[in-house]
């Protein structure tokens, strides 16, 4: 009789442990799963396209270290298409945006019959929201529309005064300035260092099995004057949370086991008495 009670108690302990592990596992917070990542140090890989098929890798001219990126691009859209995504409720895309040479921000002046700007950069989800539509400036006498939230001044050496409401100094929010090694020459300046890097990240609701991200620019002058590129592109999805009913069910089972155990102990005591 005692051996049988011991085996029953031991089995009960195993079941409680298993159910406890079950509840703990399903109660753990879900974490994002990376579905795409590329630093473009070796290959473009699949999924990228553009209207003019100018998809390639460029090495920045800075000789202090090797930095390769996707680009250079001018006006138009460059798309990343992903398929076979796991079930999820939201998506986050993060990347380094390289702005090269004389981005003119909100400029509206015309030089030699050619509008200087505004120089827009955009990111939108195919069939979904626009995540960014703004202007950037790499210097000069005009500001830009972009500023991060929370606000960060960035590494700009241009501090303009009297900018209109909603405009910010050139390179506001940039994580790097003059680090890529690009220069630009104008009638006033020869081989002036002119580039910036922005670290950007956007989260948005998304549940589909496929995703298209459209990166683009418009209002730019020739690619030797104003261009852009991408680096360190990462896309992650947040899995569907386990329904609360699942772990509540497990908790309920543990509770029932506890009640059964107390009843068994009481019955054993009565038997011994």
Describe the structure.
The protein has 273 residues and is α+β, with helices and mostly antiparallel strands. The protein has two domains: 57 residues; 207 residues, Galactose-binding domain-like (Jelly Rolls). Strands 1, 3, 4, 6, 11, 14 and 16 form a seven-stranded antiparallel sheet that branches. Strands 2-5-15-9-10 form a five-stranded antiparallel sheet, with no helix packed on it. Strands 7-8 form a two-stranded antiparallel ribbon. The protein is globular.
Summarize the structure.
The chain is of the alpha+beta class. Helices cover 20% and strands 34% of the residues.
Strand and helix layout:
Elements: H1 2-27, E1 33-38, E2 48-50, E3 57-59, E4 68-73, E5 76-82, E6 88-101, E7 110-111, E8 114-115, E9 120-125, E10 130-135, E11 176-177, E12 183-184, E13 192-193, E14 195-205, E15 211-218, E16 226-239, H2 244-272
Antiparallel strand pairs: 1-16, 2-5, 3-4, 4-16, 5-15, 6-14, 6-16, 7-8, 9-10, 9-15, 11-14, 12-13
Helix pairs in contact: 1-2
SSE string: HEEEEEEEEEEEEEEEEH
CATH-defined topology of the largest domain: Jelly Rolls
Largest sheet: 7 strands, antiparallel
| Rough outline | globular
Uncertain regions spanning at least 5 consecutive residues: 1-7, 18-28, 244-249
CATH class of the largest domain: Mainly Beta
In DSSP terms (H or I, runs of 4 or more residues), the helix count works out at: 2
CATH architecture of the largest domain: Sandwich
> Radius of gyration over alpha carbons?
29 Å
- Whole-number total of structural domains: 2
Question: By helix and strand content, what is the structural category?
Answer: alpha+beta
Classified in CATH, the superfamily of the largest domain is: Galactose-binding domain-like
Proportion in helices: 10-25%
- DSSP strand tally: 16
Q: Quick check: average pLDDT?
A: 84
How large a portion of the residues is in β-strands, by DSSP E? 25-35%
Q: Cα distance, first to last residue?
A: 15 Å
């Amino acid at each position: 009789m005692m051996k049988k009670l011991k085996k029953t108690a031991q089995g009960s302990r195993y079941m409680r442990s298993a159910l406890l592990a079950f509840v703990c596992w399903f109660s753990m917070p879900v974490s994002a799963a990376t579905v795409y990542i590329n630093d473009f140090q070796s290959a473009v890989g699949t999924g990228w396209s553009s209207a003019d098929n100018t998809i390639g890798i460029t090495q920045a001219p800075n000789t202090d270290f090797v930095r390769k990126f996707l680009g250079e691009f001018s006006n138009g859209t460059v798309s990343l298409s992903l398929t076979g995504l796991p079930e999820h409720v939201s998506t986050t895309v993060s990347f380094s945006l390289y702005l090269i040479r004389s981005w003119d921000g909100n400029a509206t002046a015309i030089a030699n019959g050619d509008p200087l700007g505004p120089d827009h950069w955009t990111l939108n989800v195919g069939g979904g929201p626009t995540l960014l539509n703004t202007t950037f400036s790499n210097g000069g006498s005009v500001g830009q529309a972009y500023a991060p939230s929370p606000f960060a001044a960035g590494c700009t050496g241009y501090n303009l005064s009297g900018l209109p409401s909603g405009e910010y100094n050139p390179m506001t929010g940039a994580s790097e300035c003059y680090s890529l090694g690009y220069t630009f020459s104008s009638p006033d300046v020869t081989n002036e260092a002119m580039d910036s890097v922005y670290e950007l990240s956007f989260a948005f609701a998304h549940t589909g099995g496929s995703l298209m991200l459209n990166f683009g620019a418009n209002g730019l002058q020739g690619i030797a004057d104003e261009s852009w590129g991408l680096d360190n592109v990462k896309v992650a999805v947040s899995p569907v949370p386990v329904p609360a009913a699942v772990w509540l069910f497990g908790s309920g089972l543990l509770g029932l086991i506890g009640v059964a155990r107390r009843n068994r102990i009481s019955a054993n005591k009565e038997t011994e008495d």
